[in-house]
Amino acid sequence: MKGVRLVFLGPPGAGKGTQARELAAEWGVPQIATGDMLREAASAGTALGRQAKTYMDRGALVPDDVIIGLIAERLAQPDAKRGFILDGFPRTIPQAEALDRLLKDLGRPLDRVVFLDVSEPELLRRLTGRRSCPVCQATYHLVSAPPRQADVCDRCGNALIQRVDDREETVRKRLAVYADQTAPLLDYYRNQRLLASISGEGDPDTVRTGIRRTATDRVGP
Ligand code: AMP
User: Fold this and answer.
1) What's this model's pTM, rounded to 2 decimal places?
2) Mean confidence (pLDDT) of the chain
């Protein structure tokens, strides 16, 4: 879909990353995932990465001004002119307001905000069983989506890890942060008539079909 500008919203573990990666490739637009950008900065050991890691490892949000600066730079890059899928941003009301201003200045407002709805027990199951590739960012699940060879990435052959923030205690913290800081965005985007809600609990192909339909339909009355 040419030129589509979407936000994928949802709690950690809802499947935003998996769906965004597939659909961005399908539609020829960049997937802009702030979590991936921060993890890359952390493993490269940049000042931003080192600062971000102290928040990420304990399941807290990185400060708004840092994230907003990162996104402003990213959206200014030429590939984002074709459209984008934002995955993991915005996560707070100030971030959403900053995004509105940025896109207004660029004359490229959002088309749709897709909310992936998944229950808390299912999120806990998914996140604590998740294993990730630190190199290509592919994700697996010990039970429901294991790699072909245990602990090895199917796509690039590197050793899989459990993200520090996917340990149970930190997962609970991230879900609480989501409920407190990110869930208010549902009303924010509902009021702008941009929100489309779909169940994120089906198998990934069914969820993807739902997102495709939603992204091309008009929202609301
Ligand atoms: P994610 O991979 O999207 O779950 O993000 C992992 C971590 O990166 C989060 O728990 C936050 O610490 C940080 N992070 C990612 N995106 C944002 C954002 N938009 N605002 C603040 N912190 C973020």
Assistant:
1) 0.91
2) 93
